[in-house]
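FAQ: What does a ligand-bound record look like?

Like this one, built around fe (iii) ion:
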Amino acid sequence: MRCDTLWKDARVATMAGDGMGIVERGLVAASDGVIVYAGPEAEAPAFDPADIIGCDGRWITPGLIDCHTHLVHAGDRAREFEMRLDGASYEEIARAGGGIVSTMAATRAASEDELVAAALPRLDALIAEGVTTVEIKSGYGLDTAGEIRMLRAARRLGDERRVRVATTFLGAHALPPEYAGDADGYVAMVADTMLPEVARLGLADAVDAFCEGIGFTVQQTARIFDAAKHAGLPVKLHAEQLSNQHGAALAAGYAALSADHLEHLDDAGVAAMAGSGTVATLLPGAYYFMRETKLPPIEALRRAGVPIALATDCNPGTSPLTSLLLVMNMGATLFRLTVAECLVGVTRDAARALGLSDQIGTLEARKRCDLAIWDIEHPAELVYRMGYNPLHTRIWSGR
Ligand code: DI6
Ligand code: FE
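The answer part, i.e. the structure of the complex:
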């Protein structure tokens, strides 16, 4: 069988099927950046590859997928962090004109080149841990030009590095000061002007909103989702992060790719998500950094069979985090996810949360050959350590 590169003498976690798809004596074969075989050596067809790479028993997993980030932004919020250490709350800071709106001001003042330059070190930190696909949201421009500039910067990051970038339009992230007191007016502008323009330019792969007391109501979110549907774009939602607005049920009703955060999700919300195909994307970095104490309803999600993804939520306000390995550790320690759930959450189910299950997330024939090769003895080590990176090699699209 034809293949140009073969990785052999490996242990493989294909992440295909239900669990981790563990293969003790495995190999991966690829042709033109696409997997032609991944599985047991004993069952592999005969290959005559140009390139044979011996893995000395190292573990191969799918390249990791960070399915929720705000990687593109200017400035930082270290000063607000200090204010929160002194007792100010995130909502108080946001209502006083800090928070998302302060990052908006810095981002509006930055050129596209500056946004790319600011984001690259964050992207490189993710890549250094085996990330091969990253989702990047807009949402700090909050005007048409600013949102478009952010999305162009996000797309450019995918040209600057060997990584796949999925972009998400998050125009309804916060109310810009020009629209103070007129949230409906802003939402109408996003739905009628900004979103169609972003879609026309092909800059977004999905549409997101922040459904929250300090964000937008369920009705306003529905308005955005209708516009997304009209533009042919899938939706996802920041839901139930700080309070229960019943956003996850709305998202599930729109067959959203994912509902994200979910700390305040109740039983009715879980029931609405069950069977909808909408992934629960959990963001333990934000939970940790906000010193949240209300856990997302993990056991109820599990029992309802809702797929669970994990992501960094990398953003300057609530999760200045660029380690998907640490996210897995937090998922296990804070949310009591199993090792398998953590690994599935940054591979198979993260792909699902991006609508990319047909291309990435597992090691199976016809998927992209995105691999992470690890210097470990057991997959649990990827979840167990904190601040240690056992990545040996990262392969993107076969190279
Ligand atoms: N929820 C979050 O955690 C981030 N956005 C959102 O809707 C926070 C973004 C920020 O504070 O800059
Ligand atoms: Fe977020």
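Follow-up question: can I read anything off the structure? Yes, for example: Residues 68, 70, 238, 313, 315 surround fe (iii) ion (ligand 2) (CB under 6 Å).
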